[in-house]
Amino acid sequence: MLAGCVIGPERRPEVMKAEQLQNNIIVLEPNLSRFETAGPFNVSSRPDREFNIDLDQTLVVDHFAAKSVDLLPIVIMSHGNFSNKGAHRRQAKHLASWGFHVVTVESPNRDQWLENGTRLRKFVEMVHQWPRILGNNADRNRIIVVGHSFGGSAAILAIGSGAPVIGAVLLDPAVVHSSVTSAMKKSDVPVVLLGADRKIFTARGRSMFRKNIAGEMIEVTVPKAVHDDAQGPSVFAQAALGVDPFTSTTKQALFRSTLTAAVIGIAASGTLDFSAKIFERAAKDGVLKDLTYRDKI
């Protein structure tokens, strides 16, 4: 039980404090299964919000927010190639329920990934400058970016060009261009890489992230997971077939758990200390594998 965060008949989730919850979690015994279910906060959803990031560019986003009375960290998510923001809807709602503002960004989903890195940086800068566009309780000083596949390249490009974030989580990321490697060397915030199983699928250039990212970094693998398990069912496979036959609901749930643990750790401490503890325990138990950790280069 979380001290000071008991939910009973006399205390509704809406009056709990997200920061108190997150600070308590990181000092508890590391247990990845704690994040399998939704968190204690009700979540509001605002789909298809439009923001002008410059004179001629508009971004469309889905916005999910925990109903909490205190400042909430901000998570901004970038989808991957041949995908869209809808692929991350379940991850975003799950994260928000643990005490966050979560924004999933719709980007051109092919051939514009360098530009998508710039778009992501501009949006992060906008949120940092005017956090009230997300609400009166958005914490501009705790922004974390998340990117899947080529969206991981976009996230690193945004960080390398100065996006004001405190950390990043990369979901089976892929390198889209050599300029991403240069951006990695400028990325000095804590980064967690959550990968699919290399025996099944290896994202293009995935090993380059651990070799070149300048900041503190953890990489860990979800056993037997495929690339799209790191987001959700392929929205295009679902549209065509009614189902994505290549993904696993179990592995998707494990990605949600690891993503939530990583984001909470970064938001609460600005370090990877909590991620290291919880993933080491999960790897020891066989839930995760191939764990590597290193300090700043």
CATH architect. name: 3-Layer(aba) Sandwich
Specify the overall morphology: globular
Q: How many structurally independent domains?
A: 1
Q: So, the CATH homologous superfamily?
A: Alpha/Beta hydrolase fold, catalytic domain
**Main beta sheet, described?**
9 strands, mixed
Could you tell me the CATH topology label: Rossmann fold
Please work out how many helical segments DSSP would assign.
9
Distance between the termini: 38 Å
Order of helices and strands: HEEEHEHEHEHEHEHHHE
Structural class: alpha/beta
Mean pLDDT: 92
Which spans of ≥5 residues are poorly predicted at pLDDT below 50? 1-14
Strand order of the largest sheet: 1-2-4-3-5-6-7-8-9
The value of Rg in angstroms is 18 Å
Q: Helix amount, in percent?
A: 25-40%
Quote the beta fraction.
15-25%
Summarize the structure.
With 297 residues, this protein is α/β, with parallel strands linked by helices.
